[in-house]
Each structure stands twice: as structure tokens, then as C-alpha cells.
Amino acid sequence: SIFWAKRPTSKMALLQEKRAQNIGVQECEELCGCDVLVDAIIGTGFNGELSDNLSILIDDMNSLGAAKIACDIPSAFTFRADITLTMGALKKSLFLDEVKDIVGKIEVVSLGVEREIYEKESNWNLLDLEDLKLPSRVKKDSHKGSYGHLAIASGEMCGAGIISALSAFRFGSGLVTLVGFEEIEIPHTLIYSHEVPKGATALALGMGLGVEFSELELAKFLDNTLALIADADIFYMPAVLEILKRENVIITPHPKEFTSLLRISKIADISVNELQKERFKYVEMFCAKFPNVVLLLKGANVLIGKNNNFFINPHGSAALAKGGSGDVLSGLVGSLLAQGYSALDAAIHGSLTHVKLALNYKGNDFSLTPDDLINGISKL
User: What digits encode the pLDDT tens for the residues 102-154?
Assistant: First the structure.
């Protein structure tokens, strides 16, 4: 049956009402018990605030125990859908972090006409887990140097660097060296050095670096042309601008770090809330200003961009909301960089590996640790 949030007035709406009546669809005067509830109140063209009446109606809809389906998009992103049947093609707005708990499972349904009629080419692409390409060792005549050497800067919180290093080593790097200025205890599989090794093929910088890390110390790490992944504390330092001038660079900020980076690079001075409402916009702005840099913006939906090519990884899990999870990601991405992946491919496949590790975890979602992620690499 149909409950009218608003009586139809346009010719098309009146035609659809007539068609529904002709096949026996009944009207109901108030929301009542049902097994399935379909939200078809507001579409993608809505812009503004809901009226009080519609807000109350959608609250009532959310309170019902029925299976909930949204048509095209959940109305004003306030209707909590179990499934969103989006019409014809995916919409970027369905992949904003703030609506992750609203949209439910997303499926594209046909409009009944050929997609070529309305479909436009987009520079945004949706990643699937099947896109993942793991490192491969097909050459028998090889040695540890054949699979790259990742150097990881170790700073104030050395545990973060160790997590990244163990992640990188498990993910295929032939050698992993922690580089720092103080002696620390490290796992026996890793190397420790006071300078970046001459044989290094990639550099990871920022994880656990700490805010007390000096510009002079940082300069020692950057006195090379190595492929580089930057994360964490580095995004609060003005020296990050020098990193953004390099080639073959990946940066992996979370939203707060990205707002700092936007401010330092004079792109925008915004809050985290403002960023989250327009993630796509600010990713595009950053990549336009720094077309040589690969940006991986962390979140419930990971956004990856370089120049004018963009990717959405929608497979994130709340299980990854744990200290050290990002350090594992840095190790995965850095490992691929060291093994010769392009910066964009390293970001894409490192990100897909990260979410797949979380999805493969068999324990409770609140119990996942960095060690669990690292141990899961061998089972991919």
C-alpha cells in the first residue's frame, strides 16, 4: 500500500498514481505495521532542510521494525535504510562517511533504458575487493634485494614504526630497516640504523615521529629521491610542503591531519566537520594543486586520488578503528612502494589489503589488533 507524504500534483506523478491504482495498490491513511517499508519521498534533487512534518514522518518510519529500502537515496539522508536501490548509476553522495550508517547495502537497479543514454564518464571509480593484486614472487633466481628495502623513520613513539615495519616485512619487502637516532629494542627480523641505508628503495615517514622531531632531523631523512609514504605527525609540520614537491609520494592522512595539511598548503582553513561533509571536493582541490602526489584520505570510505583520477574504497570496517591500524596500512603501502609498485597502485592495493584483512578477521569486531592484521597477511 502507499502512504502519501505529499499528494501528487505533476502530470508524471499523477500518471504513476493512476497506474498503481490500476494494478490494485491501496492507499493507507497512516503508517501501519508492514514487513517492508520503501522510502520514496525525496530524491537526489533535494537541497535544503526538511519540513517539520517530513522530519516527524521519517522519524516514525525509522521506528518501524520493517525491512527498510530506500529508492535512489535515503530521503535527506535521515531515513535509515537496510538497502539503498540507487537508480541507474551510483551517486558519490552515497559514499560520504557521514551516511555510512544510513545507506545500508547499496545496489544499482536499471532505469529500463540503455545506460549509454544517460551515463557520463566519471573520474571517480569504485574499488572492489576483486581488484586487489597481491605481491607475487614468480622469479626463482632472486634474493632479498630483489624485493625491495623499506626504510622507516623511527621517532618519539617507536612502537608505531615497529608495527609498520613488521607489516611491511610480512607483506613481502625483502628488507626493512628502522632508522632513528636512539637505540631501541626491535624484533630480530628487522634492521636498525642511524641513517637511511644506501640500498633502500622506499622511505616511510611520520608514524610515531612525534611533534618534537626537529627540522634538521627531518632533513636527514629527506636528503634522497626515494619513493616515499608520509603519515601522521608529519602533516602538522611546515616541512611537509617539501615532501609535496617530490615525485613518487603517497600521503595517508586521517581527516584531522588532512585539515591541517589543507591549512598549511593554503588550500582551505576548515574544520573536520566541514571536511567530512565535502570530502570529494577537498580531495579534488588538493590533487589539483599537487598533481604529482597520491592522496589516500582515511575514513569509513577511503578516498584515493592522483591528479584527476580518483578511487573510492567502500569496504572499510569499524574494526579498524583502533590505535596502530593506520601504522599497519603505512607498512602495507610502503612495502609495495619498496617492491616497485607505482605510488597510485601501492595506495590502491595497500588500502584494499588493509580492509580485506579486517573483513577476514574471525574474532569480535572490537577485539582486532595490529598484530591480528599483520598475522592475517599470510592467509590472504
Answer: 999 999 999 888 877 777 789 999 999 999 999 998 888 898 989 999 999 98
Query: CATH topology for 31-121?
Result: Rossmann fold (3.40.50)
Confirm if 108 and 90 have CB atoms less than 8 A apart. yes
Max intra-chain CA distance, the chain = 81
Whole-angstrom distance, CA of residue 165 vs CA of residue 362? 24
Q: Where in the chain is the domain with CATH 3.40.1190.20?
A: 129-379
pLDDT tens digit sequence for 61-104 = 999 999 999 999 999 999 999 999 999 989 999 999 999 999 99
The answer to whether domain 129-379 has CATH 3.40.1190.20 is: yes
Residue ranges matching CATH 3.40.50.10260 in the chain: 31-121
Task: Give yes or no for a contact between 177 and 192, defined as CB atoms under 8 angstroms apart.
Answer: yes
Q: How far apart are CA 8 and CA 272, in angstroms?
A: 40
d(CA 316, CA 314): 6
The whole-number pLDDT of residue 356 equals 98
The CA distance from 248 to 270, in Å, is: 28
User: Angle CA(268)–CA(221)–CA(173) in degrees, nearest 5?
Assistant: 100
